[in-house]
Amino acid sequence: METKSREEVILQRAMDFKNSLTGEHGARVLDYISKFCLEKSSTFIEDSERKSAFNEGARFVIIEIRRWVEYDTSKLNFEEQ
To answer: What is the pTM of this model?
Structure first.
């Protein structure tokens, strides 16, 4: 079984996110996740440390998804093995 390089794994993951979350259907799903995960909202709630931490965790999810959807694969360095 051939082992993939780190760059190949990253490229595959980035392409999977882009293929899944672009286009008409993917854009709607991404928009829903963005709102659900409070991407563009404040996650801080005064006097509620647990709720703020929960909100920040939810926000982290959409930030990670966006990171992969917007990943610039041209920066990957495929070296000869």
So the answer is: 0.69
pLDDT per position as a tens digit, 24-56: 999 999 999 999 998 988 888 777 778 888 889
Domain housing 35 = 6-71
- Is 34 inside a domain boundary? yes
Q: Closest by alpha carbon to 74, among 27, 30, 4, 10?
A: 10
Question: DSSP per residue over 4-73, as a string?
Answer: PPHHHHHHHHHHHHHHHH-HHHHHHHHHHHHHHTTTTS----TT-HHHHHHHHHHHHHHHHHHHHHT--G
